[in-house]
Specification:
ten-stranded mixed beta sheet; alpha/beta; single chain; globular; 32% helix; 333 residues; 10 helices
């Protein structure tokens, strides 16, 4: 059993049971922590520390966000743990309304609040006595890639950003896949979402589409399109399955994304650096390519040979950790 400890508004679990989809490193100490964002929602995170940490020193730190619909026990935790082995302090967090974080109704998706959750992570890390508050960076994977950039647009405490297999959720929800949605289709979708709000109000809860299975599946269901099949391979099967990773969000969450462009001010992140990472064979690469073109210098684009979108969640043989490490070492020095 874990023991919850409350100190100065922060909660953490001592000797927390290992509940990740990856093996624990013998070089790190893992603690479950919790802290509030500015909306009063309690964010649950895994904090990773070097086993030989010298608490009299101050370390550079990194906030790691999950893939869209994922939880901190999956790919985000792999990044967080590996970077601690390389000298940083890290947290991987669950977005508000999801995973072990608080917030009702469950599985809401909110662009503003998900962006705020990155800044809340900076609040937490910057107030740890062993963290240098002037040396904090962020990593956003998949959907959290755009959220991390949006946070950095206004939060100057974020000194460097790395995105991995980025999705721009506001763009894809408003414009459709590869911007193929017509105005007529968008208006029809908005009409349907308006009708759904009335249904949700009368039902007393928002409609949540079915998600990934509660137990890992043995195979990919027949009839899925290639992109859905790829995501099911990770989230629905033993490779990355976690019982708290539902996948879809409440249907009416899409209304907010249609009204909230995420990367309008990406150029304002400069002169803080951005490292964009994508797979050579990622279906999502157009999001990264376009964001890279929009961003101002300093910026860098790394294309991982042979990698698909999900491979950069967990394939430690493909994730360019050496590059990520050197990027943050240089950016947070």
């Amino acid at each position: 059993m874990s023991t919850l400890v409350f100190i100065t508004g922060v909660t953490w679990a001592e000797d927390a049971a290992w509940d990740k989809t990856f093996a624990k490193s013998e070089k790190v100490v893992h603690e479950k922590v919790a802290y509030p964002n500015r909306y009063g929602i309690t964010i649950a995170a895994d904090m990773y520390l070097p086993k030989d940490i010298d608490t009299s020193k101050k370390y550079a730190a990194i906030v790691v966000g999950t893939p869209y619909g994922g939880v901190k026990e999956q790919g985000a935790g792999i990044y967080a743990q590996t970077l601690v082995e390389r000298g940083f302090i890290t947290i991987a967090f669950d977005e508000s309304f999801n995973g072990e974080s608080s917030g009702e109704p469950r599985h809401v998706s909110s662009p503003e609040i998900f962006v705020e959750d990155f800044s809340a992570g900076v609040d937490f890390l910057g107030t740890r006595p062993f963290v240098d508050k002037n040396k904090i960076g962020v990593i956003g994977i998949c959907g959290s890639g755009a959220f991390s950039l949006t946070a950095a647009q206004v939060d100057h405490r974020i000194k460097a950003v790395t995105t991995v297999s980025m999705y721009d959720m506001s763009r894809v929800i408003r414009n459709g896949w590869k911007d193929g949605m017509t105005d007529e289709q968008r208006n029809k979708t908005l009409d349907q979402l308006g009708e759904q709000r009335w249904k949700d109000f009368e039902n007393g809860s928002p409609f949540l589409p079915p998600g990934f299975p509660e137990e890992a599946a043995a195979s990919i269901p027949e009839g899925l399109d290639p992109i859905s099949s790829e995501f099911f391979e990770y989230y629905g099967m033993a490779r990355g399955h976690h019982p708290r990773s539902h996948g879809p969000f409440t249907l009416t969450s899409n209304m907010a994304f249609m009204n909230f462009p995420l990367l309008s001010y990406i150029q304002s992140i400069s002169p803080r650096p951005i490292l964009f990472i994508m797979g050579e064979n990622a279906h999502s690469r157009y999001f990264t390519e376009d964001a890279y073109e929009m961003a101002a210098e300093p910026k860098e684009l790394v294309i991982v040979p042979g990698a698909r979108h999900i491979d950069l969640y967990d394939r430690v043989d493909m994730i360019p950790f050496d590059k990520i490490t050197s990027f943050f070492q240089e950016s947070l020095k």
